[in-house]
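Researcher: Next entry in the queue.
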Amino acid sequence: MLDIRNRHTAAREKALANGIKEVVAELRLVEVVDYIAFLRMNHYGNIADLVRSSSELHLKPGALRFANSGDIRLNWGSVPIIALDMEFHYEPITAHFRLELGSANAAVDISYLVIDNPSSDPEVDTARLQRAVGEARLQPTMLAAAH
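Model: Structure for this entry, 147 residues:
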C-alpha cells in the first residue's frame, strides 16, 4: 500500500510541478538574498506579491498563492535552498505544498491535498489534479490579450 501511495504522490507532485514551472522560473529571477531577507524579517507580504505577480503571467487569478510561511537552508559552502509554503487552488482541487527553490532546480512536496468528492481510485484523483492544473493555466490567446 505504501508503494502505491508514494507512486501517486510522486505523480501528483510532478503534475503540479510541471503546471507551475513557468511561475517557478519567474520566481527564480528574484535574488536569493531578497528571499532570505523577506523570510528572516517576516515580510511575507513581499513574497506574496512576488508569487502573485509571477503567477498572473501563467495562471488564472487565485490559482496559486504564497501560504505565509517559508524556510531557508543556508550553510557555509552549500547552495542556498529557499522553501516556500504554497497553495494551489482550482476547483475541485486544493493542494498545500512546499516549493523548494535552488540555484539549478526546484522541487514540489505536497503536504495536503483536498479533492472535492474524491474517488476510491487514486488514479482518477491524480487525473483530476492534472486536469485542474491544466485548466488553471492561461491559454496562449489569454496570454496575448494580457500583454
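Model: The mean pLDDT is 92.
Researcher: Noted, moving on.
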